[in-house]
Amino acid sequence: NTLTATLTGPDLPGGFKGRKIFSIDASTRIWKGNGFGAMADLQPGQSVQLSFAWRPEWEFGDYHVADVWLDAECLAHAAERQRQLHIRHAKHRWLPGYIDHVEHLPGAKGIVTFTLFSGQDPSLYELLKAEASKKGGARLAAAEPTLRTWWHYHDSKSGTFIDLTEIPNPPPGSSGLQVRFNVNELIDGYRPTRVGRLHLKDFSTKMLPAEERMKRLTDREMSLPPTN
User: Fold this and answer.
1) In a 3-state reduction of DSSP, which class is residue 146?
2) CA distances from 148 to 1, 225, 227 (A)
3) Which sign does the torsion angle of CA 217, 223, 225, 228 carry?
4) Phi, psi (5° rounding) for residue 180?
5) 113, 138, 188, 203: most buried by Cβ count inside 10 Å?
6) 89 CB contacts (<8 Å, ≥6 apart)?
């Protein structure tokens, strides 16, 4: 089966424009209201939202319709479902950021200054603010520039928040949220300009899938920035 659509929207480089014909079949998800509709709900002249999937003839500009959203209600439901998937993903992998400064204290302890990257769900940043305001606890895992970790729970140390600063007009990629916290033991990964992942209350401590973890020193070497 095929679907003929006249595409409108932002004029983006490489984007679809004008009248196009796409394949569509029983694998296509038809979203309607708070659930799913059926192919019979598609009528001529409708204004809908589409998402596309790979098709063998993609090199000729041919794509398959993966999803059709028929109304604003189903769009809102789909967006919330995707948001919750993002939150679950972040709670399993922890919040990424970069280490700005490390202050060494006696007994291998220290104070780490850590700025979170942007792009996380606002609710996760609010959780961070709440924990920092009550001087709650956290764990910081050593990570690579690719944001991958080895075994994030084992390669992390716990501590308590000292304070949180909101940086005005942060640079691209920065959330503007900078925390300082006491760490009970400094590890090698805690160095300025290095990347880390921050664990907050109720985040998972379980091991990530094998394909996501760093497992060999050669993986680490490939992930480091080039040197002159």
Assistant:
1) coil
2) 42, 14, 20
3) positive
4) -120, 135
5) 138
6) none
